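Hypothesis: this fold can be encoded by more than one sequence.
Test: take the structure tokens below, design a sequence, compare later.
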């Protein structure tokens, strides 16, 4: 997006945790291991109020999310024709959550000021959004950009509309997004077609997890579950370490010797409902990091298994399904209906099929834009067999409102073609190729990550009926970060 009268380019993470939007200023509150150039990349840009003639200081909103911030109004633009001329956001006066959610945050929570502003402006009709992160592993020609649709979803990104998990947002928990799921099994998918459960077939091994689209990595697992994964999957940490972790973009996930690392896929089963299959190319990826000059680079001496082992200070944290989960799963959140849905993503999608979602969680596929007398057809969103939501088949938005949803959604799809999150800018997509660097030292098991505490993770019985900085170019955390002990 661009911010201010002089169109300052800022890259955001789409955050389901926060109600407000936060844009880091010229003080990015980075630790000393980051150079000034690396800090700008790490934060997704640096908003400079002194360079904008349209900024205006506004009242304190600390109680909304609890962060220290200078509250500002300024112009926010995205897509080819969508802008908010006076949008209020916070310029953080503290680090929001270290490297787990490093960039500026586009707040899409239950009381999202951003979604409310778009509804008020008539750009969308419902406080809903859907996310596909994009493919980030494998050869460059197989990688894809992501998608963020506001006010609806892209049906072309859904592998099977009827095979989904839909549930109520669990508000009031310490899972800030409200997207709490039970993982009933995790399977290793070997290339010879056999599967192996890290739960060893035990139903009582099911664990709760929180889906968080801005959180680093694919999944964080309690130590016993990670040990089970490692014992079955195999792999050797580099340089004879007992354990090694990345301090790069996939923060605190595991590193292995590229000649001895897991070569299969992974399937995550949600609440005896759908299964999300993660191919090896999205589970075992290059270790990318931010160099001291601000360039995104790749360490070719290791391979990054994007799983975080929860231990030590974080041993009782609720497991998180992070942003890379959205490389294999398509997520839709309808804040007004208080529901969220998960599908296996269709990564072969070429042509978008945008539909709106109304306040009763119905997909709206036909409409007459800009006409109060137009007709519309509302189709119930397919639901899983686990605690299906109550749907109102007859509920429809007016043609004009539905038109606003779809136009807004298409506008966002258009911009995401040009500002997909900078950290994953692809080689061969028109920008310069990422550089390659060798890291001097890797972190070992005695490192304690910053705490991201939500709900304690405990094994439990399954419920029976439950429930552009810019798009930064590919030149820019200093390699010395691997010496940094937390």
């Amino acid at each position: 997006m661009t911010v201010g009268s002089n169109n300052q380019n800022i890259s955001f993470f789409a955050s389901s945790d926060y109600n407000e939007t936060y844009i880091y200023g010229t003080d990015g509150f980075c630790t000393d291991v980051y150079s000034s150039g690396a800090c700008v990349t790490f934060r997704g840009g640096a908003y400079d109020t002194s360079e904008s003639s349209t900024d205006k200081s506004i009242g304190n909103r600390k109680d909304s999310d609890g962060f220290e911030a200078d509250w500002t109004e300024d112009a926010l633009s995205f897509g080819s024709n969508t802008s908010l001329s006076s949008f209020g956001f916070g310029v953080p006066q503290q680090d929001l959550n270290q490297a787990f959610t490093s960039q500026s945050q586009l707040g899409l929570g239950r009381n999202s000021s951003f979604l409310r502003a778009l509804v008020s402006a008539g750009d969308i009709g419902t406080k809903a959004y859907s996310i596909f992160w994009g493919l980030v592993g494998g050869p460059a020609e197989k990688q894809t950009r992501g998608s963020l649709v506001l006010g609806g979803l892209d049906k072309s990104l859904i592998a099977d509309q009827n095979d989904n998990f839909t549930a109520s947002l669990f508000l009031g928990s310490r899972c800030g997004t409200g997207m709490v799921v039970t993982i009933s099994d995790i399977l290793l998918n070997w290339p010879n077609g056999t599967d192996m459960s890290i739960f060893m077939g035990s139903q009582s091994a099911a664990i709760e997890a929180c889906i968080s689209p801005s959180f680093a990595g694919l999944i964080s697992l309690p130590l016993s579950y990670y040990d089970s994964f490692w014992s079955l999957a195999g792999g050797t940490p580099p340089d004879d370490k007992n354990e090694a972790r990345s301090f790069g973009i996939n923060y605190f996930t595991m590193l292995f010797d590229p000649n001895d690392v897991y070569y299969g896929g992974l399937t995550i089963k949600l609440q005896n409902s759908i299964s999300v299959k993660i191919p090896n190319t999205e589970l075992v990826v290059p270790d990318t990091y931010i160099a001291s000059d601000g360039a995104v680079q790749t360490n070719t001496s290791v391979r990054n298994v994007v799983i975080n082992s929860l231990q030590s200070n974080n041993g009782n944290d609720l497991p998180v399904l992070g942003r890379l989960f959205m490389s294999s799963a398509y997520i839709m959140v309808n804040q007004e209906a208080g529901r969220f849905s998960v599908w296996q993503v269709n990564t072969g999608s070429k042509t978008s099929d945008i539909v709106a979602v109304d306040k009763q969680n119905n997909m709206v596929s036909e409409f007459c834009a800009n006409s109060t007398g137009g007709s519309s057809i509302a189709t119930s969103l397919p639901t899983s067999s686990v605690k299906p939501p109550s749907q109102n088949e007859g509920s429809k938005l007016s043609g004009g409102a539905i038109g606003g949803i779809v136009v807004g959604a298409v506008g966002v799809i258009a911009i995401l073609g040009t500002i997909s999150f900078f950290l994953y800018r692809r080689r061969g997509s028109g920008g310069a190729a990422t550089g390659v660097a060798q890291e001097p030292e890797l972190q070992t098991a005695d490192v304690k990550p910053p705490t991201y505490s939500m709900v304690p993770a405990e094994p439990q019985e399954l419920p029976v009926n439950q429930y552009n900085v810019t798009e930064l170019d590919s030149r820019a955390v200093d390699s010395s970060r691997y010496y940094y002990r937390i």
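Helices lie at 36-43, 62-65, 113-120, 223-233, 280-283, 399-416. Residues 399-416 form the longest helix (18 residues).
Hypothesis status: open.
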